Fold these 2 entries.
Entry 1:
Amino acid sequence: MGSFSGYMQYIQGELGKSWCKGAEKDADATVCGLSSSGEPQGIHDYGNRWIGILGKDAVMLKNIAQAAKIICNSVDTWAANLQVDEGAGRWGQSRCKSEELGIQGRTAPKSSCDWRAKQALWYLNQGLTELRPDKPEQRSLMVCMDIVSIILGIFGNARKGKDEYEYKQKNLCQAVYEAFSEWGGEEVATSLMDFWFPANTGGIILGRKSMPQETGHGGTWRNALYIRPRGITSIQCSLRQPGPPRTYSTSCYWTKDSSGCENYNDEQWTAAEEWKLASKVVSENELSELIQRHEDQSSRLPPSSSSSGWRLLVQAIGAEEYFIQVVAGTVGGLESDMSSNKKEFQRVLPRFMISGKNQPQRCKNTAPLLSHAWEGLNHKLAPDQKRKQRR
């Protein structure tokens, strides 16, 4: 299993931090604004960082943050469902099919994905409307949302040039690379391009392992990055100069429904023209409908991930990273233990608290954190207990 959320932590915590130590950076438009002391961001706030991530010149849909959050969650689950090809020392295919990713992806009830896979953390933040960078698992999600918003913004603002689609007079692969570089530095940009749009036949790179691209060069994310009809959803990039800085050219373009990567001269679709003709309000309304449909579908996930008891515990401690590590198996507990039966929660939680005292340094705060959760849970359950006593 791969950890995409762990990769995002690496992007922000190791590569990003070293870059942020240099000259003063714009916190609103770079990874530097996503430190543990960064500002909370409302998903539905019109002035949130994701709407302004590319600056004032880019036209961004007002619900871009909601779309980016869903896309990131699906990629996190995709990575958590990767199988390791032990013989080759690389990733095999993911149990998640490409059509299950993104805002049109299937999350329930017949998805081939395990949406509660051990390495998939972000689905716990599904209902949050404000994200806080002081919470590690929310911070890594915000990092991903920055990255996805950059990609979606460039694709959505693409214009037809003389020989290719362009963004700010750059071919789209070069534009995405330079935007990544402005957001997090050269090392970050190189790493992100090798994951999203690898310019080699070795495939996507995640956690020092590569995997072949399922649908052809550059096409892995053509479903995941879909937010409007017939728009560009992925690109095939070729590396002209290894750099640093790198120089890219764009070979062809993917859409969600294309049978392959299409050349600039293809007459079947023109994303730039559609963007000009379709009003921004219409695009936002269409995206809102897709988001609502996805959220309605997500609400039908199996009880073990959406039970009232599970939500109660998550709310009690704010979905902290340490708690998630414990529940996911750090001390041997399983999510199946967390049934919706409140009495069962009272039985299971003390076991985690006791085990947490003997955890390694990274989980040192588990015991007091769970103690806080225990108090919060007891407080929330008190009315039920009193009703039972009166009976």
Note: Residues 366-390 form the longest helix (25 residues).
Entry 2:
Amino acid sequence: MKKKLLCAAMIMIMVLGTLVMTGCGGSSDKSADKDTLVVGLDDTFAPMGFRDENGDLVGFDIDLANAVGEELGMKVEFKPIDWDAKEIELESGTIDCVWNGMSVTPERKESMALTDKYLNNKIVLMTLKTSSTDVTDASQLANLKIGTQADSAALEMLKSNEAYDSFKANIKEYDTYDTAIMDLKAGRVDVIAVDQVLGEYTNKNLGGEMKECSYDLGDDYYVIGFAKDNTELRDKVNDAIGKLYENGEAAKISENWFGKDIVVFEPLED
């Protein structure tokens, strides 16, 4: 009987051990000494990270992440994710960071370990080049139909604008900016609120069919997000970006993608 109990106990211990190992197997190592940096991204966000005509991942963030990898002696692996589940992906360890034109928000400051700001991206208003519309003051938005992407930095900027109450009923939210631009071209909205880097890149591909209004909604800075407890790896990546900023390599990547240097390296305010 004792032998049977002992055997049963040993089998239980082995099973539990296997379950524990299996549970751990799905998570990546959060150690700063790992040799691969797994970057989570939305692979449709041009020009930060997107697929070219050959299906290859390209973009400003792709090039900057690869440069950081070289600086740290790490391989960089890009993993497309559901953007709405990015916090879950971080906490589960399937990715090391979210690096894809991610704006600073109070919620992200609470849920992630964020790097310093590395890119200055204004939120602008764009309209058709053939339109006589030019927004010079927020008060004019009360008389305009405004398109923007749902759950975007541009939408947050609109909501935080001092004149929001006067134009909030005029805002139409879209799943993608492509759809918003289609409605702009069809005359169903008068202006779109959009990230400047995305708006300018898209406009270039459209042959300059749009123009920026004189009034913008303000500066919006991009950061990289790590799991809250992964500050050691966050700091290593942050230091590498600082070196690329100082030696001018980050500026070269910016010039290549945007035609100008909009790279910054500024501390994140508390």
Note: The longest helix spans residues 2-25.
